[in-house]
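Could you help me review a protein record that somebody else here produced? This is what I was given.
***
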Amino acid sequence: MEHRIPSGMARSEWGILDPKHLGKLPVSQTGVMSIKTVSGAETNTLAAPSRVGLAMLLVLDTNAGTSRVITLSPTGMKSGAAGALTTLTLNLVGEFAQLVSITQAGALRWLCIAASTGVEA
């Protein structure tokens, strides 16, 4: 049985619209983005958050045989792991990344607090 939770949440007041291939992900909203890939390797850029305390859940809802690679610019942080977070790669339906906005040394950054195995890089 296939779930439709991400699709339902995307239509709620917490839904964030998928900007599609090459679109810029919003940096001032809290909510859930249900990502739908169409064809070819798809990419997006996630800029620094606009303020502290934002929360974003990215979920691959529909996969047409490709992946979505999201580049964080500036780099983000991995929760509980050393090193910078430069990309998130969603390949399989249901893979996710949960991000919150924080400050590090006075700079706004995204912190990945949870993700499917292999999504963070």
